[in-house]
Amino acid sequence: MKKMFLPLVVTLFTAGTIFTSCESPAKKVEDAKDNLAVAENNLEKAKLDSIAAHERAKAEYQARITENDKQLLDYKLKISKESKVQREKDEEKLDKLQQRSDAMKATVNNYEVATLESWDIFKAEFNRERDAFNTEIAELGKSLADAGKK
């Protein structure tokens, strides 16, 4: 009797575990639909967050470009007071900077977000260009300030 009791307990325990752990196909489908709905909701939220981040960055870039344009106008006024030779050199630098500013403005306005990876690449390249532009505009401002001291 003892020998029959142990296999019977093991069999009943195994059978009970199998029956309680099995889910019906309808339950599995319902769980899958719930998971899909959550995933779609998360994807939509991520898209909205990405679009919002793009719009914020675009507004920041445009504000900085507008600020640079104001600086270029100020420099144009300062250049007009210089000697003819120096004015021609500085006007040439100023024209190149204005063209770069216009190109950056067009780049920002025409950019369409395709993927998060392409947006990250765009930001990195644009930030490098913007930093180089800011360095050049600062150098022009310094040379104008130095010319005003002479």
Report how far apart the termini are: 115 Å
The arrangement of helices and strands along the chain is: HHHH
* Oligomeric nature of the chains: single chain
SS element count, helices: 4
Largest sheet: none
Amount of beta strand: under 5%
Shape: rod-shaped
Provide a short characterization of the protein structure:
This protein is mainly alpha-helical and 150 residues long. The chain has helices at 2-21, 25-79, 84-110, 116-149. It has one domain (24-149).
Task: Write up what this structure looks like.
By secondary structure, this protein is mostly helical. It has one domain (24-149). It is 91% helix and 0% strand. The protein contains four helices and no strands. It has helices spanning 2-21, 25-79, 84-110, 116-149. Helix 2 (25-79) packs parallel to helix 4 (116-149) and helix 3 (84-110) packs antiparallel against helix 4 (116-149). It is rod-shaped. The model has no long low-confidence stretch (mean pLDDT 80).
